[in-house]
What we know:
591 residues
Amino acid sequence: xxxxxxxxxxxxxxxxxxxxxxxxxxxxxxxxxxxxxxxxxxxxxxxxxxxxxxxxxxxxxxxxxxxxxxxxxxxxxxxxxxxxxxxxxxxxxxxxxxxxxxxxxxxxxxxxxxxxxxxxxxxxxxxxxxxxxxxxxxxxxxxxxxxxxxxxxxxxxxxxxxxxxxxxxxxxxxxxxxxxxxxxxxxxxxxxxxxxxxxxxxxxxxxxxxxxxxxxxxxxxxxxxxxxxxxxxxxxxxxxxxxxxxxxxxxxxxxxxxxxxxxxxxxxxxxxxxxxxxxxxxxxxxxxxxxxxxxxxxxxxxxxxxxxxxxxxxxxxxxxxxxxxxxxxxxxxxxxxxxxxxxxxxxxxxxxxxxxxxxxxxxxxxxxxxxxxxxxxxxxxxxxxxxxxxxxxxxxxxxxxxxxxxxxxxxxxxxxxxxxxxxxxxxxxxxxxxxxxxxxxxxxxxxxxxxxxxxxxxxxxxxxxxxxxxxxxxxxxxxxxxxxxxxxxxxxxxxxxxxxxxxxxxxxxxxxxxxxxxxxxxxxxxxxxxxxxxxxxxxxxxxxxxxxxxxxxxxxxxxxxxxxxxxxxxxxxxxxxxxxxxxxxxxxxxx
Length: 591
């Protein structure tokens, strides 16, 4: 329904029916979204709502007045602050850039105009940041009309060069300001085609900066950023093999018979997909194989001299004759991720439809021509990146280390002995600005071990890191197989002599390793030092966090309230508290 490439006419004509259907989804994450625009935004808001709902986010909108994006945020009268936004989207375009250069302007004058134009937008960005939420802003498209033709790209007074310089200043701002994200309007317009992306007649008549058929592409781009910010990204790319990663059937043709490499158009097309998948792996996306094949034959395909991918690049490898939905479920269980966190890429339309009809929530891009495979997956925005931490880059290696841990576990009859054999060391400490990016990402991406599923903006997390009425705690875990990075965190708010836990998350990579006990032991110690007598916490049920429904009970909390599937718990700190962790060596770090 809302899958790339988009049927814009269908979406625009059926938006009410699509919205009605999407609102039936369970566990929608409610977010307050401010839309400020330099041009008309009504239909953009309507279609953006569809794409957000499709990604599990139910928006409540505040719409600024037409053309008053600057005044609404810079001179806010308290209306925006009262709305308490989670996201501010600044929908501006070249129509809103002023002053603009004119052909023949001196280089000095062009520099002054650039400084003045950016300064105006910077005031908007800075003012928006004060609301403590994520800010998404368009950069700028190239002009349709070039007074000086190709010389516009080189001349200081060329509008093309001016826009390029302005966009670079916006990029530098994003690089140095956490919580500010660029919606790449320049790329969108180039990909869609400037002639079609901006319709002068539609602008002249209705003051829309984007043509009607391009609105779904703009809305999808913004929604991709938002869903990434709030942990709705996909985590794994599951790949078919024959005629997907190479041309030919490995079981019939053998390694020598499959087509892959630069010697033919088909070989180049499949090589492009392999390169794309390899690069995704480098930023932490899990790769897996889901193929109807004999295992040995399937793995032999990666010995082809032109294959960029190797069998060891895949963290789950299922080549057999079972139905693919079953294999996807098995791989998700092996990786300890939700099956709806997967993207399934297969050249076979019948197999794609079988996976779609299985109702697993797996994303299935429509792959038709091999030369567009990588392009279609990329344009789908499944793996949108809003930041890239060292832990993200190491994620694939961390999953490989987990496979080694699981293999070793099988050699022990006693689970406690297995935990001790891992030689685990835990490093714990308060939130700090240097770790804030990873801490915020973990809070927003974790769904299973997440007791409240609360999501945070960078400024909200910074407020908690600064202490005051909060106790914060992160947990990093090392063992003999490697460093898992920061994989757990707690935020507690001090209320008199009580500490109320508003956030407790832990990565699925370290389930059942006693890290949760070590975290609680440390939290109790910090609470006692602060004069805290009791600790309270809530559990809010979602489709994905049932695993922690009775977690507080396992720690010794008493249930004080039950409201449907949600519950409230209390722990009275004893005078002689006994540590619950017996497997992890604990170190407390203080920056």
